[in-house]
Amino acid sequence: MKVSNLLTNGLSNNTTPLLLAAPLLILAVLTSLFGSTLLVRIVTVLFINLILVLSLQIFMGNSGILSFAHVGFMGIGAYASVLFSMTPQAKAATLPDLYAFLRPIHLPFLISLLVGALIASLIAAVLSFPLMRLSDAAAVITIFAMLVIINVVLVHWSAVTNGPRTLFGVDNYTNLGNSAVFGLLTIFIAYAFKESSLGLKLRASRDDRYAASSIGIDIIRVRWLAFILSAFIAGFGGGLFAHFITSFSPYAFYLTETFSMLAMLVVGGPGGVSGAVIGTVVVTLVREGLRYIENSANINQTFPFPVVGFTEVFLATALILILILRPSGILGGREVRWNRKPVELPDEKPASSIQPKGA
Amino acid sequence: MTNLFTLDFFINALSLGSLYALIALGLVIVYGILKLVNFAYGELIMLAGYVLYLLTNGTAFPWLVVAAIAVIAAMGTSYLTELVAFRPVREKSLTAMLITSFAVSTLLQNGALLIISPRARAVELPEAFSQIVHLGGVDIPMRNILTILTSLLLLVGLSLLLKYTVLGIALRAASENFRMTRMLGVPANLIISTAFAISGILAGVVSLFWIGRTGSVTPTIGGAPLLIAFVATVIGGMRSLTGAVVGGYVYGLLFSLIGIMLPQSLLDYREAFMFLIVIIILLYRPEGLIRGGSTGERVG
Predict the structure, then answer these.
(1) Do A134 and B227 touch (CB under 8 A)?
(2) d(CA A192, CA A195)
(3) Is A141's CB within 8 Å of B106's CB?
(4) What is the pTM of this model?
(5) pLDDT of residue A55
(6) What is each CA distance from A239 to A112, A182, A278, in whole angstroms?
(7) What does pLDDT average to over chain B?
(8) Does residue B165 lie in a domain region?
(9) Which of A171, B35, B152, B237 is the most exposed place for a label (fewest CB within 10 A)?
């Protein structure tokens, strides 16, 4: 946030991250004090999802480019962090073909997460550099191609990922406390990015890329930097996810998860941090609630057949309805603010309302 | 490497290419008009597969009748998704439409999971699919010849439709300049619905031959054809229907060549290689092999 912006807009403009973080902090504290095991689990998942959705918002919301690849970077972060956090014995048991130089490394949890995130962002930097000049359908297809490539490599690189099989034996380091700290921190990062000069330039390129480049914004560079930052956060979130779920396969980081992330972002509204936060809360609670019902129906055999996919059917239907009725999400790209006056500039359009169709 | 350019390699590549051309064409016919990359396209193939499964196991209809019903079902579903999901968001934004198509894809896929089963279901195939023909001293599966002939028939039929009927001419005009076409009095909804219906028919026919190769159907069977359609359309050019067909054949040939030339250890990564090719093509020749209308997709 620039000082000049602070002066012109007043402090009321910066209450957004605090207003978003405060209720979540209260939720985390209350859950850790009084919550059942199930509730603690759900709230932890909520914070992990928050990190992932915000990582997607940082790129997608500000650049207006639909990204399918972030779940891939989440996967890279998950596998990479696990390689550094597991004990040599555990690695020998679950990854017998692991390269010799990786076997003895055993780092603390937080460092492993950071290394995992760093690896994800480095890979993102290399893969995305040539793609950032593409827009529209070409961008969507190439970024989708990136997800497919990452998935194919994760599935087949058995030495490092245990191939398509489940990787197990990861220590359960992620808990409600640390996921809440990182989740809340990410709210501030995402907001600071949006309001930073880089974020502003990126949003300018989203709303009109020709006008933006005509005033000297290097669109490729700002997109690229945002992509790297968002891949770093996605990788970090992936690391947290890995140490929460403790056993996973490459298919955890593919289309189903991508759909969940996109649903969370789109339901709330991709144009703003508030939309991402609210969408994550709403969709996570609905999803976990439905999963719980689905699982207990299967365990109790309420129906004569196993119920699979009900959660996704419901979410997909809800998402289509939201897109029809409120295509820019519940919040429509606006931010939650302390004073109720519409402080948002009138020309600030949410990401999903750009490029109006001639059709 | 010795059998690189023998007749059976050629026929195999050609049949693969024909199938891929149909797959790509079904995607591009919608993309050309709506600029929508329809992620739900693969699920149409799945849906036709399940109709095939349900009717071959439950009724005594001859296979051809069942196949026709499957194709009609795919066409109807394609039309319905347009009517219910895409039409309301069409005016809003490209991103909204893309996410809608992703949601429709998830909906159909998980609907199949929920209603039928996550497990693969065997589909009965007619005799002709497993027969072998001796041609020029080599054994060629009848299936491959059928794929080539059906594709040719469909491609010829479709190009006649596009060239000589009013609807076809309107469709081609719309894919070049939709706004102008509308101004000339062509109803937008009719054109878009027709494009989705044709896309559905192609998906249905593709389904017959795709399932003809594996003999079973799963809820996720649409994923692979969708990826193939992406690669093929990007190779050939997303802006033209001819490009999609050319892209399909080129992809079929490339895929067969890579299958022969890559060492076994790298063969697992074949999909990753194909997508690398896509990325490279989009970077250096974003309009593909066949140039369509103006692109204007890149900045910088």
Answers:
(1) no
(2) 5
(3) no
(4) 0.86
(5) 96
(6) 8, 12, 23
(7) 85
(8) yes
(9) B152
| Mean pLDDT (chain A, rounded) | 86
Element (H, E) at B216: strand B216-217
pLDDT > 70: percent of chain B: 94
Spans in chain A with pLDDT lower than 70: 1-13, 339-359
Confirm whether B258 is domain-assigned: no
Domain, as residue range, for B78: 7-220
Which residues of chain B neighbour A319 with C-beta distances below 8 Å? 99-100, 103
Decide if B121 is inside a domain. yes
CA-based nearest residue to B77, from B217, B192, B171, B197: B197
Q: Are B146 and B129 in contact (CB under 8 A)?
A: yes
3-class SS letters over B105-170: HHHHHHHHHHHCCCCCEECCCCHHHHCEEEECCEEEEHHHHHHHHHHHHHHHHHHHHHHHCHHHHH
pLDDT digits (tens, 9 = 90+) for B19-66: 999 999 999 999 888 888 899 999 999 999 999 999 988 777 888 899
- Determine the pLDDT at residue B104: 95
- The minimum CA-CA distance between B46 and chain A, rounded to whole Å, is 16
- CB A238, CB A74: distance < 8 Å: yes
What's the domain count of chain B?
1
- End-to-end Cα distance, chain A: 39
Q: Which of residues 124-153 of A touch B (CB under 8 A)?
A: 130-131, 133-138, 140-142, 144-146, 148-149, 152-153
b/e B261-285 (16+ beta carbons within 10 angstroms → b) = eeeeeeebbebbbbbebbbebbeee
Q: What does the block give as tokens for A128?
A: 């995305």
Q: Which residues from A are below 8 Å from B99, CB to CB?
A: 66, 262, 266, 319, 323, 352
Two structure tokens written together for B86: 């895409």
For residue A209, which residues of chain B lie inside 8 Å, CB to CB? 299
pLDDT at B148: 93
Distance between CA B99 and CA B225 in Å, rounded? 19
Nearest CA in chain A to B187: A359
Q: Residue with structure tokens 């380091």?
A: A173
Pick the closest to residue B275 from A143, A356, A63, A30 (CA basis): A143
